[in-house]
Amino acid sequence: MDGKVHAKTAKNPRANANIFSVLTFSWIIRTFWVGYRRDLEVTDLYAPLKEHKSSILGDKISAVWENEYQRLNGLQKQKKKDKTGNKDESKSEILEPSLMRVLIRCFGARIMMYGIALAIMEIVLRLFQPLFLTLLLQYYGQRKSSYTPIYKEQNSPGQQMEYTTRSVTQPLFLGRLLRFYNSEKISPLEAYLYAAGVIMCSAVNIFVIHPYMMAILHMGMKMRIACCTLIYRKALRLSKTALGETMVGQAVNLLSNDVNRFDVAIIFLHYLWIGPLETAVMTYFLYNIVGISGVIGVLSLLMFIPLQGFLGKKSSVLRLRTAIRTDERVRLTNEIISGIQAIKMYTWEKPFSLLVEYARKREIKVIRSTSYIRGVIMSFIIFTTRFSLFITILAYVLFDNRITAEKVFMLTAYYNILRQTMTVYFPQGITQIAEAIVSIKRLQKFMMYEERVVPEDVDTRATNNKNEKMSSSESERTSKAASSIIMQNGCAKWLTTENENTLKNISLNITPGQLVAIVGQVGCGKSSLLHVILRELPLLSGSLQVNGNIAYASQEPWLFAGSVQQNILFGRKMDQHRYDQVVKVCQLKRDFCLLPYGDRTVVGERGISLSGGQRARINLARAIYAEASIYLLDDPLSAVDAHVGKHMFDQCIDEHLQGKTRLLVTHQLQYLRDVDKIIVLKDGSILAEGTYDELGAKGVDFGRLLESQSESDDQSSSAPASRRSSRHTSITSLTSVKTNDTSKKPENPEEESEMRSSGSVASWIYAAYLRASGRFYTVFLIMGLCIITQLAASGGDYFIAMWVNIEESSGDTWNSWLSRNACIYIYSALTIFTIVITLIRSISFFAMCMRSSRQLHNRMFRSVTRATMRFFNVNSSGRILNRFSKDLGAVDELLPNAMIDSVQIGLGLLGIIVVVTIANVWLLIPTVVIGIIFYFLRVIYLSTSRSVKRLEGITRSPVFGHLNATIQGLTTIRAFGASEILIKEFDNYQDLHSSAWYIFIASSRAFGFWLDVFCVIYIALVTLSFFLLPSSDSITASNVGLAITQSIGLTGMFQWGMRQSAELENQMTSVERILEYSNIESEPSLESAAEKKPKDDWPSQGQIEFSDVYMRYSSLDPPVLKNLNFVIKPREKVGIVGRTGAGKSSLISALFRLADIKGSIKLDDVDTSEIGLHDFRSKLSIIPQEPFLFSGTLRRNLDPFNTYDDVVLWQALEEVELKEMGLDAHVNEGGSNLSVGQRQLVCLARAIVRNNPILVLDEATANVDLRTDELIQLTIRRKFESCTVLTIAHRLNTVMDSDRIMVMDAGNVAEFDHPYVLLQKNEGLFLNMVKQTGSRMADSLIAVARESFSRTTTL
Fold first, then answer.
1. Mapped to the 3 state alphabet, what secondary structure does 309-374 carry?
2. Residue 987 and residue 55 in contact, taking contact as beta carbons nearer than 8 Å
3. What's residue 710's pLDDT?
């Protein structure tokens, strides 16, 4: 549907991988090889695996959600039955379906199975490692010292424990191995075999943990995909009232930030129950080693857990608050991006930037609190183990025991395991699961929004896929069987809170084949009536029956990102004959010749490279092509030229659709003579209905409208050649250098791809991130704090080894210059200092990151709002919003974690290497070798991972863009029954993103696995080094213990550090993407230089002069305006007319300098290129073709920044007859709760308030009825009498009494003079336009021009 042919992607190598390939991740090696040699492209992505296909998961979760919904409905009914007798309890609480329960039903069993596998690995494989270490150290202790080791007695607890664990392979091998050191009975060959057994146990661990992590991450990904599909399918069913509550920003945020919780939370899920279980087993072991001291130590460790629980709870509360504030900021940003052209014309960039900065400030305030909590939790990682070890040793020494190497290092090893499980994974689990639950509740709340209800007993066959199969004779039989549309006493209103109904007691009976016109003033309920027939607006009372399927053309054309042809076909099969016929009757043939790629031209998200008339006709063509039995056409003729409108009515609506039921909402009263029935609406009721003659005979109010119209008849002049006044022109302009030769049009245009950098993340990006935090000395200060923290922590580790050496060498008499008490005091001081400095470091670090984050957002936002219109024309809102939601979310929350982790681990590694070197210099050799290998592995991994991460970001944008476009065009989508096609399209986008994400998680798992393989080799080298090193006095038990505990720690840490540094680089791509948008081409300066600043009363005259003006939308495009030279005199009223695409709206863009201009444009002899944009844009008022309104009160829409008094605002409302709405009336996002005509009136009120010397009307009366048109014209004549007024004409009668008329043709000024003078030119363009309105109409227009001319000459 998006106009692109989806190339068939290569099959996923994981699908056919064998067990060996899966365990070793060798199936992904090809991707690494390609990624190392060049940047990966979207074409390198594989097809998604069947198990994570969006459609399959979507169907699965939707079915379970539906079952849950039905189950609760049944329970609710049962409760009501049970309580009918009991009046007090009749108001039972409403049961809501639980998304959590749905997720558990879908994915719970598999997740639990993985959990059991993890538990076996954690408890069996990892827990006995410290025991083996003790046995090894015992051997060294026995060789070195005279004191009796704790395990010598046959019945000691340790001995019993050795026997209890002999069933596990590793202790068996290690026990045998250690016997080799104690006696000569075991041959060296056997000893080596046992050593191999020990190493194999570590190897088994990595073959379990990595496939487990891959599987659990895959489950998180599947949950995310399922929820995204569920949300999208729900969005397609939302009622119009629910849409008022749901901003696009909120839906985008759900799809970008909330569902991502699944990817992270699931990793830690099982540690919530494995952690306490492991702690219980470990406490038993520790009790056996050091008695009650071990229990005290574990309790001191567990003491942190309630604190972490509290912090986790606080974090989830803050998460919810963050989500709400992020929604608000993304919503605001979305509104601004959508209305950027209007914002630039109104010079509102700065005040809107302040609004967003304020929203961002509020958001950051909450994120900062969350970050501090994270900082405290991360600090626990550094000091909890050390604190517990300190407490245990302190208690043990105070109970008058002596510490030994094996005890200390066995405790250290146990606490390291417990630390990872209980102080890293367990609290992370609490926080992440708490946040995931908040997200699930938010998703659930969205799932509970009101849906559009289609009664099952009504025949509304709107599923047009079925239409294709239905033969035309069958459809005719169906439609003629009864009335097409019957409504009896229908009442409806958009909001239940409103007092008055929008529609009141409407009764209709429309027979098959009738052409019915619906007319009435702005806001009388014409579009609402169509919405009732479409079942978008539910009836409060009365009944409705619709027989036959519906095609609908909306009042505001809705186009999606794709080719023109795709927009017309809308997922239907191509029938060339029918297609050509539709193109012809919708008057699109000439436009296809003008478009660079004909009907293959790619249009932007909202069809922006097309003029208003082209968009309206494509929108109509979609409805006509649909072959339905009922056509609902909401004012399709308002945005087209007079003669085009006439041809469309005659050839398309009247002839082509003959025999079909047609409801035409229109303000073009000249067509009413040709319709079968007219319905006149007033204030939501039917004022009159009947044929043209019947209504004329009744002499109803409608008759007065007709009289006033008899002089004016149809003058729908041209539609704009403009880029839409919101934004996003399509990408056509990029390739339209070759537009002139239409005969050689290329097959398919290229769409402008998203900006994307390649190669490694440059160092200047890190510098820019740190620089954004403020001054560089704060960065150095924080680095200093990090180093001091590491020194304190490593100092404590080294000191305990030193103390053990003193204890062991002392024997019965203490022989050291340090007393035992001094040792206790020093150790205590080091531990407390470590705790304090760690907390200070964490909080300072996160404060710095928050400053950076806020600064980066503000810079990007300022840069985007200052960008040229070209930027918005080639970048869809999904693409821009992606940077403001997902990338910014990563910089706010994920990047600081990865960065502090990398710094912490980097310094930790350094600390460990220093400590190991002091213990045994020889261990430096394998450490350096493993470091070099790791570095090369990291280089290979990073080059792939970076481009995969970038691809993941790029494939994510279309998902948001698609959701965005869907919500915009929901009514059209549902009217055409195109939901299924759009779901498929969404699934395609999701699958593409899933492919990128799956490669991303697989590559990081593969990297972790291969790092661990080398870690096992490293452990083997360290273990075997004790066979190879000659027996010497330097090998003391404490040195061996320190070397082995630190090296085991080093390996796990090394691979986590590598991974986090890679993760840091991946997250830095988000900073890179934000910085890309912080340096985009911007418009000239907003403010003038002091010497060039115009006077305050400028322009006092209002004269406009164009000299040699050429305008391009991009430097590559041919000019759209060519060599314009004209002068508009002060206070002159000028009408601008011309065929669609002639350059009328481009002229306005040039006046406001919204594009690339060559030549000079002067206002009162001041060249606008020499002064600031704000200085002259603020002196121009515009009523744009598509009115821009934002959510908030009517007051805020008229005067967003409280510049004017309420009196002025009330007066303006009174002028445009909107006073009854009141200044405090609420306006939805985009003004969706007002009719298009009312939105135009609000823009007129805005212009009255600003009261500028120059007023521009860009098709301002395109979508209003005649009475409102008259009101606007009168108001303009009265209020702007002393102003220069440029009117892009929609109805010729509005400009016939202008001082002069400018006729545009193909970007040139073809004619420019008084209308009456132009009418004297034989074969003149203007004369032809007037003639095309019909002879009767032409006569009345010529009469108006003549009268105006005689008035001018007499003056």
1. HHHHHHHHHHHHHHHHHHHHHHHHHHHHHHCHHHHHHCCCHHHHHHHHHHHHHHHHHHHHHHHHHH
2. yes
3. 34
Cα 987 to Cα 999: distance, rounded to the nearest angstrom? 18
Strands (E), 1076-1234: 1104-1112, 1121-1128, 1133-1137, 1156-1163, 1166-1167, 1180-1183, 1192-1193, 1226-1227
In the chain, CATH 1.20.1560.10 sits at 50-63+99-449+775-1076
Give pLDDT, residue 1263.
Answer: 65
| Nearest to 1283, CA basis, from 1207, 1355, 1179, 1211 | 1179
Provide the whole-model pTM. Answer: 0.69
pLDDT (0 to 100) of residue 739? 29
The residues, any chain, with a CB within 8 Å of residue 86's CB and separated by 6 or more, are none
Those residues of the chain that have pLDDT short of 50 are 2-6, 87, 89-92, 141-179, 181-186, 457-481, 606-607, 702-747
In sequence order, the 6+-apart residues with CB closer than 8 A to the CB of 992 are 42, 45, 955, 958
Pair of tokens at residue 758: 């390649």
Segment (H or E) for 485 = strand 485-492
Q: What is the pLDDT of residue 742?
A: 34
Strands (E), 97-194: none
Residues of the chain with CATH 3.40.50.300: 515-732
User: Superfamily for 515-732?
Assistant: P-loop containing nucleotide triphosphate hydrolases (3.40.50.300)
- Both ends of the chain: CA-CA distance in Å? 60
Token pair for 472: 């035309």
CB crowding 159-196: b at 16 or more within 10 Å, else e: eebbeebeebbbbbbbbbbbbbbeeeebeeeebeebbe
For tokens 């919708």, name the residue. 586
Give Cα separations from 657 to 651, 714, 1058 (angstroms).
9, 22, 68
Question: Which tokens hold the place of 432?
Answer: 């992440």
**CA gap 908, 1050 in Å, rounded:** 9
- b vs e for 204-217, b when ≥16 Cβ sit within 10 Å of the residue's Cβ? ebbebbbbbbbbbb
Q: Are 1130 and 1284 in contact (CB under 8 A)?
A: yes
Residue 779 and residue 773 in contact, taking contact as beta carbons nearer than 8 Å: yes
Q: Which residue has the tokens 């999606």?
A: 560
Side chain identity, residue 85? G
- Supply 36's token pair: 């190392």
Residues 6+ apart with CB under 8 A from 989: 955, 958, 959, 962
Return d(Cα 1284, Cα 546) in angstroms, integer.
Answer: 51
| DSSP type of residue 1164 | T
Q: Report the pLDDT value the prediction gives residue 86, as an integer from 0 to 100.
A: 56
Q: What is the DSSP letter of 86?
A: -
DSSP secondary structure of 1088-1116: --TTTPPPTT-SSS--EEEEEEEEESSTT
- The reported pLDDT for the residue numbered 806 is 78
Tokens representing 361 are 């400030």
Architecture label for domain 50-63+99-449+775-1076? Up-down Bundle (1.20)
